[in-house]
Design goal:
Elements (H helix, E strand, L loop, with lengths): L1 E6 L7 H17 L4 E3 L21 H13 L10 H10 L2 E9 L8 E8 L5 E6 L22 E3 L2 E5 L8 H8 L5 E6 L4 H14 L2 E6 L2 E2 L10 H4 L6 E3 L1 E6 L5 E7 L3 E6 L4 H5 L31
Parallel strand pairs: 1-2, 2-3, 7-8, 8-9
Antiparallel strand pairs: 1-14, 3-4, 4-5, 6-7, 9-12, 10-11, 12-13
Length: 310
């Protein structure tokens, strides 16, 4: 099976433009013969890197303005906001993993969640996972997810599960995926560099699964001129805001492809999903190495809602 990891920028903080670009990229990947297409964390409509660049307190008004723009360009699944992506997946017969910002119009319509959708090759939404714990200043703009998305789901290319960015440092969250017979572990992120790559390799060894790590490859020149405070946030037009570092590791830890650093395009590789299960003969963290007489984990996968209307 051939897979493609997208390492290109969205149309930053532009929902319609990012959806259009994503559809085109899915078509390009399909033309290469890829059956799985993976996008980074919050790719639609772009990771809110401004939360790391504006000082607390004095930058609050600017954060409010950028939050409002980000919120207005987030996806509401209740309105079938990912319909263009679902249609592209169905039309090309590919599985798509998409990192995006989500608003829930059925509850408040205001809080933004950092979400990751798995869309099967028939266009069906197979799973939607909201990041359990936003990291540091991300908590100024993203709400907390729940356990309802901690699922490994059957797709046309194998069993896929996702954790977002620093969720991958949460051993119990990882274990919840390992215990569901995972083939392909996808880690959309904003992180990069040697520490992150070492984490991806460790997970491949620990979980005995294929691991895909991917961040948005973004330069300051990718930020449209109309984005508020652009010159203040990105004063160096030649800056690599994020180098990308798309990578694929084999089950039990060998490098399959990448890392792809400071370049735009797609990281393409051939994998054999079934190799994951065979690799766990030596070490099956949720199987013969689990020791349930000593350790147990309870995961609450009920969808948490602040209100119920009878």
């Amino acid at each position: 099976m051939k897979i493609s990891v997208v390492q290109q920028a969205p149309v930053y903080l532009d929902l319609a433009g990012s959806l259009e670009r994503a559809v085109a990229l899915i078509g390009e990947a399909a033309a290469l013969g890829c059956e799985l297409v993976v996008f980074p964390e919050a790719w639609i409509p772009g990771y809110p890197t401004f939360v790391w660049r504006l000082p607390p307190g004095s930058g609050m008004r600017k954060t409010d303005e950028l939050f409002a723009l980000s919120q207005a360009n987030s996806v509401d699944l209740g309105q079938d906001g990912l319909a263009p992506i679902r249609e592209a997946a169905r039309d090309h017969g590919v599985v798509v993993v998409m990192g995006y910002q989500e608003v829930d119009g059925a509850i408040s319509g205001s809080t933004i969640f950092n979400s990751c959708a798995i869309i099967d090759a028939d266009g069906r939404m197979a799973n939607n996972h909201r990041k359990l714990m936003p990291t540091n200043p991300e908590r100024m703009i993203w709400g907390f997810g729940d356990g309802s998305g901690l699922n490994v789901v059957e797709t046309a290319v194998g069993r896929i599960g996702t954790l977002i960015c620093w969720e991958n440092y949460m051993p119990l969250a990882r274990y919840a995926l390992y215990a569901q017979n995972i083939d392909i572990y996808v880690a959309p992120t904003w992180d990069s560099g040697e520490t992150w790559l070492a984490t991806m390799q460790h997970i491949a060894r620990e979980g005995g699964c294929w691991v895909i790590g991917c961040a948005t490859s973004l330069e300051a020149s990718d930020i449209p001129e109309g984005v508020p405070y652009r010159e203040e946030l990105f004063p160096d037009p030649k800056e690599w805001v994020n180098p990308g570092d798309a990578v694929i590791y084999k089950p039990f830890g060998g490098l399959a492809a990448g890392p792809m650093r400071k370049e735009k395009g797609m990281l393409v590789a051939d994998i054999e999903a079934s190799a994951a299960r065979a690799s766990r003969r030596k070490f099956d963290v949720a199987g013969h190495y689990a020791r349930p007489d000593v350790f147990t984990l309870h995961v609450d996968r009920r969808k948490q809602r602040p209100i119920a209307f009878d």
